[in-house]
Design goal:
about 120 residues; 2 helices; about 20% helix; globular; Glyas_Fos-R_dOase_dom; VOC_core; Glyoxalase; Glyas_Bleomycin-R_OHBP_Dase
Amino acid sequence: MLDHIGLEVQDIAASGQFYDAVLKPLGIGRTKQFGELISYGTTGDTLWLVPATEGAPVREMHIAFAASDREAVDAFHAAAMAAGAESLHAPRLWPEYHDSYYGAFVRDPDGNNIEAVCHAP
């Protein structure tokens, strides 16, 4: 459904380091740097980090990244903790979503709710 999305960040370099670390266990890498902008994806430029608009209100976003297995969710969470992120929810099953929903939630450097989720049993 989505081709790409732009996520406003206060510090492109710091956010780039954070996303480099936490997306690597999910098989997602940096695909392009275009001026200040940084993109991530598996086959294209799906997520773009863009400079926040000066003076604009910051709004929390929630982005969930697909993980191939539960070990990748665990590795995502470990990488986020090593990068200094706040853990919102450690990796676990979320049966209220569905029986196999296994996810972890962290805050990125700009306060966004970033999740890795595996739907496989």
